Amino acid sequence: MLIPWRTLFYQMVLNVSYDIVKSLCLGGHDILAAIKENSPMGEFIANITIAEEPRVNSIRLCLTGENAGWFYLEGRTIRLNTSFSRGLDREVQGSILLASLTCYEEDTKQNEYRVMVEILNENDNLPYFLEKTIQPRSISELTAVNSVAFSVKAKDADGDIITYIIDKLSPDASYFRIDLPNSGIIILNKPLDFETKTELQVNICAVQEMNTIEKYNTTATIKISVLDGDDQYPQFLPCSPVSEHTICTNPLYIANISEEAENTILHFSPGPIHAEDGDKDILAPVTYAILSDDNGRFTINHETGEISLRRRVQNRLMASSFRLLIMASQVNDPKKYTVTTALVRVVAENRFPPYFNRTTYKGFIIENSSPATLVSTYGSEVLIIQATDRDFKDGINPKITYALHPIATSTKLYHITEDGILIAKATHLSAFDRHILEVVATDQESGDVANATVDIEVLQRGQAPRSPFGEERLFGDVNVGIAGGLAAVLLLLAVAAFCLLLRLLRRWRHRRDPVERGSVALGKHPNVEPSSPIRTHQTP
């Protein structure tokens, strides 16, 4: 709706011809004109014409009023008065400049007329975003797709309509879209996931719709923090990722008990039994429960997940293991849960640790070009380093593994097999070398260890080995090289026969009656000494 003076302005434009005053002092008319903003200094505004000119020199014109400073008179012409530091700006001065033109004749005021100049708008301003609408913001990952994510607002001093566009080259432009270009409302285009992306960044452009050559625009970068929502289920730890999106498989917890165990807390591996909410920023508390049990034989602490054995196993051959289904669910949402398995194995009690029959083993190697050579004893046999376990009738514990303790660089020159046989890299050895190795035997079931030292010397090619205890030579001085080669062949044949014998022995053990095979599957040999648990002194 136009205000009254603007209506009057347009009416007067229709009633006057351009901006000519026909008779200024003798009943002229108001001056109406228009000029573009940003016009230069001295821009023409209007001419003043005196209809009757008796004694022209006695006529004096003067500009006064609120905006008179924007004009100056050049003879009978009104021009724009601007400067380098003061330009005509419609957005600052407004749309109309008002002044008064007074006509004096011989210093006597005769008439006064209005000068009204409209400032025509030009597209000379960039749009700008309202600062509060482009601040960093947070959005929950549970925000529904196709719902409003946030909104922005831009303005233009020229009053232009603004169109909003998402910059497709911005890092996370695919997450958002704009359905109504002039609204500034940003719609969520695809689901958010806190577990894979916690920070988003999108550039929004505000473009003028004015139909001019200039298409002024401005861009704002919006940073969005994705808030964790309660959309993940609990997970038992340690978590084993199966994809890049942190999808995990629950571990299998394993614990061993003996027939004598009762009213005891079980220690699981990997352990302890523990589950956490998959929403890492929420970590809702979880509660634990046993879904399958043997008539209350096991109980679980609902807050910690600690499992206890209440009743002992009467006969481990009749109940060799128990599989417990453990459930962890969120306290605030029982529908969010996960289930894993805890395997409880009933094994024979470990009463004796493994031990070596001697503290130091001595052996030798004859220098040769073979990539792998067996270490021999001075009794012309293959050096076998094997620990004894008195929990077994034959002293052989199949759960014992052997390793070389890395006490020196020479450890890299040797390898010990699962049967305790030392193999050397002969091509890396030099005559007269001497190596001291430490062998560690570990019972994988009980964790008990035993240690022994191996003293190995490297003999020169053709040199006959002598016993370190002063015994006679094992080979004569004649044809020593042949004897050495023959010994190496015999050693290799002996090792092959020994390994074959061990494999046959193991197969024979596994072919025993089903009760014994079940016991072996539990990780303990069936030939367990039922004697007193008193440990004997280890003799070196």
TrEMBL record:
This is Cadherin domain-containing protein. Its main location: membrane. Keywords: Calcium, Membrane, Repeat, Transmembrane, Transmembrane helix. GO terms for cellular component: adherens junction; catenin complex. Residues 35-129, 131-236, 249-356, 357-470 form the Cadherin domain. Pfam families: Cadherin. One of its GO terms (molecular function) is calcium ion binding. Gene3D superfamilies: Cadherins (2.60.40.60). It is found in: Membrane.
